[in-house]
Design a protein that fits this description.
By secondary structure, this protein is an alpha+beta fold. Helices cover 24% and strands 30% of the residues. α6 packs across α7. The protein starts with a strand and ends with a strand.
Length: 293
């Protein structure tokens, strides 16, 4: 049992309040996932550079900053607790290769607009640790985890990102993830954990890289991914939700003229502005709902 949340802003009205809105959603999903929490924030794209979300773990930030400056030409590197956002105009393949060779850190995501932060601990502590309430942006997804498939570690936490500006949060479990993992490794998808959700993220990245759109990809997933699941998938344009055809994992959607909010339970959205007049409904099994994509 985990908690998943997401919010997509249909207007600019609440962009400065996005972090505050998401904070309340994550904290209210604590009962579904007390082990760890994480979130992905999408901001306006800077076409001239890529951003890399890095967990520096136990490294001293100033030392990491000094060492990485010898290997990567970066525009900025901003520290947030034990994470850092590195921005660079260098070829992303070069930067990814360098970062993945540094065993002491964890690269948790990259892209032109996405920033990812995740850590073990109670959701309210994780939210406070990263000062989520101060974030602004266009859309975001988040997760509170109750570990079932892998260890309670940063690498075992959601969101998972295996492609540029892509990420996934998941409530449920996949029964065929080991076979899918072997197939995706042959297709040069790299994995950093034993978590089944990372396999699903890799599946989605692989399909999107083959020119399929998000809706088509998630419709294919309904046939290819065995198990019980509700997914929220983020891209730089928006997000989408899908429940498997049995739909034993809960989800609710609240939509107003200003935003779309998704959560495992309505209590996560009770604090949102205007939710009392929102169109509130349960997503139907086996149907992909998408906004912005």
């Amino acid at each position: 049992m985990c908690g998943i949340v997401g919010i997509y802003l249909k207007s600019k009205k609440f962009e400065k309040d996005l972090g505050k809105m998401l904070s309340g959603m994550l904290v209210n999903m604590e009962s579904r996932g007390p082990d760890s929490a994480g979130f992905a924030i999408y901001k306006k794209e800077k076409k001239e550079e890529f951003k890399y979300s890095i967990c520096i773990n136990n490294l001293v930030f100033e030392k990491f900053k000094k060492d990485i400056s010898k290997k990567i030409k970066y525009n900025s590197i901003l520290k947030n607790s034990d994470h850092a956002i590195l921005s660079s105009k260098e070829n992303p393949n070069k930067v990814l290769s360098i970062l993945n060779e540094i065993k002491e850190i964890s690269l948790v995501g990259y892209g032109r607009s996405i920033e990812i932060f995740k850590q073990i601990g109670n959701p309210k502590d994780v939210v406070k640790k990263f000062n989520l309430e101060k974030f602004s942006g266009t859309h975001a997804i988040g997760h509170t985890r109750m570990a079932t498939e892998s260890a309670i570690t940063t690498d075992g936490s959601h969101p998972y990102s295996t492609g540029s500006d892509e990420c996934l949060v998941h409530n449920g479990s996949l029964s065929n993830h080991n076979n899918l993992r072997r197939d995706l490794i042959k297709r040069r998808i790299n994995f950093k954990s034993e978590n089944d959700t990372e396999v699903a993220a890799g599946y989605i990245s692989n399909h999107l890289s083959n020119k399929k759109n998000l809706k088509e990809t998630l419709e294919s997933a309904l046939s290819d991914l065995d198990g019980f699941y509700t997914f929220i998938t983020g891209t730089k344009k928006g997000f989408a939700i899908v429940r498997d055809e049995i739909a034993c994992k809960p989800a609710v959607i609240s939509e107003t003229k200003d935003y779309v909010a998704i959560a495992s339970e309505f209590q996560a959205m009770a604090h949102l502005p205007g939710v009392n007049i929102a169109n509130i409904f349960e997503p139907q099994p086996g149907i992909v709902y998408s906004w912005g994509n």
